[in-house]
Fold this sequence. Notes:
Blueprint: E1 5-6, H1 12-19, H2 23-34, H3 37-56, E2 65-66, H4 68-90, H5 123-130, H6 134-145, H7 150-157, H8 161-180, H9 185-191, H10 205-209
Antiparallel strand pairs: 1-2
Helix pairs in contact: 2-3, 2-4, 3-4, 4-7, 5-8, 6-8, 7-8
Amino acid sequence: MGKPHPLGVLTEEAFWSIVEPFQLRLARFVQSTVGDAEDARDVVQDVFVSAWRTAQRRAAPFAAEIDERAIQRWLFRVAYNKAIDVVRHHSVITWESLGHYRPLEPTAFAGAPPFDDQLAETEALRVALARLGPQDVVCLRLSVIEEFTSVEIAQILAITPEAARQRLSRATYRLRSAYFAPPSPSALSSQSPQIAKPTDKAPKRGSAEK
């Protein structure tokens, strides 16, 4: 992100040049929370409406100067809150796997051992993520995919930085535990190739030719 720069007259075109780069990332983040693409599009549209109204009032983060990093945090915080409202309305939470995205360097996991660079696009990762709780997935996604620090995650989730660090550390530990956990016998049997048993009698030539 660039350094903050003075805010002039914020036209609609200028506004979209600032927020539009985050559109796809917001949509993916919201969909991972609400579990529905249509709901995610509605939430993101609502987020941009709120952002436009905030910008017209010259309120933070659209105040005296434009800080793109601050705007990014603001957009994700508003998106998270609106997504949670949708989840509460539907009384169901569905979480999207992180397996579709390339993980960052190991430092993104707040000091965790460098194992995450080996996890992307693997079935084991998808299975491990499916075992995590909603808050764990949110913290990992904000840290690994969106590159937010624990302080920024705290601002987005409206918790203390220490609580954010604890959640991220706990989520990392649970992901490691789930990833390295031995597969269940049923999973092993389902992955084993099915081999047809040979028959004692060969098919008759006449039947094979028909």
